[in-house]
Amino acid sequence: MSLVTMHEILLPARAGGYAVGAFEVWDLASVQAVIRAAEDLRQPVILQLGPFEINYAGLEDLSYLALDHARRAKTPVAVHLDHGDSFERVMACIHAGFTSVMLDLSHLPYEQNVKGTQEVVRTAHACGLTVEGELGRIGGEEASINVADDDRHLTRPEQAAQYVRETAVDAFAVAIGNAHGFYKGKPNIRLGLLRDIASNVKIPLVLHGGTGIPEDIIRQSIALGIAKINICTEFVAAFADAFVRQRQSPEFRYNVPGVFARPRAAALELVKSKIRLFAGL
């Protein structure tokens, strides 16, 4: 229970044919919404902090919130660095107490990606942490991430297997047509490509850009080996949309319950709906 590594919750997920939700957090309300949803449904969950959220709230304050709530949670919770943008950022998060890290080197040539990831794995594994790696370039825009369509490229199954062997990462993020942020049209998720990757890579697979992917595609992706699904933009939107709706009500008042309670409740329900979908509840 409480604070764990991603390894401890993703291995059973892939073996059991379900996925764990990984939700980006940036303040107390977002952390509380994720933890409460996980506890209510008695399911594991992952709190993710990316460079944008860390820069916004500060590593010391945000990591304290995430780690404290994870330790006190009644269900397993991992705290993960999402899309780490430098080795120094990774080291800072390791020192802060994160249980999992990711250094996103997917924009670099294969050899440089492997070399940099190997360095992170050596350090993280020595500290008892788990590491997520990524091969291929996931497109879209989300927080500090902005990858144009021309720069995105899909994961190659044979190269994926080589990458996992050479780096010894614990979880592997795939690029199969998924994208960060809201999709501009109908998502074109290559399930056949995912099937080929899964047959070559036996560790837990990660689907970034979970916002807006149809539920039937999510279920099929999980059946093919996806064990972790990232949700950020849709989670942020749950807070924002609820605030806009209540702001238009004649009963709206500028006080703490009036401004913050309904957005947090809406975000809580969004997280619950995703956990149910991912876990097959």
Which characteristics define this entry?
281 residues; alpha/beta; TIM Barrel; three-stranded mixed sheet; 11 helices; 16% strand; globular
Describe the structure.
The structure is a single chain. The strands form two sheets. An eight-stranded parallel β-sheet has the order 3-2-1-11-10-8-5-4, with helices on both faces. A three-stranded mixed β-sheet has the order 7-6-9, with no helix packed on it. It is 51% helix and 16% strand. It has 281 residues and is of the alpha/beta class. It has one domain (6-279): TIM Barrel, CATH 3.20.20. The two termini are 20 Å apart.
Write the layout of secondary structure elements.
Elements: H1 6-16, E1 20-24, H2 28-41, E2 45-49, H3 51-57, H4 59-72, E3 77-81, H5 87-96, E4 100-102, H6 110-126, E5 130-134, E6 139-142, E7 145-147, H7 157-167, E8 171-174, E9 179-180, H8 191-200, E10 205-207, H9 215-223, E11 226-231, H10 233-247, H11 256-279
Parallel strand pairs: 1-2, 1-11, 2-3, 4-5, 5-8, 6-9, 8-10, 10-11
Antiparallel strand pairs: 6-7
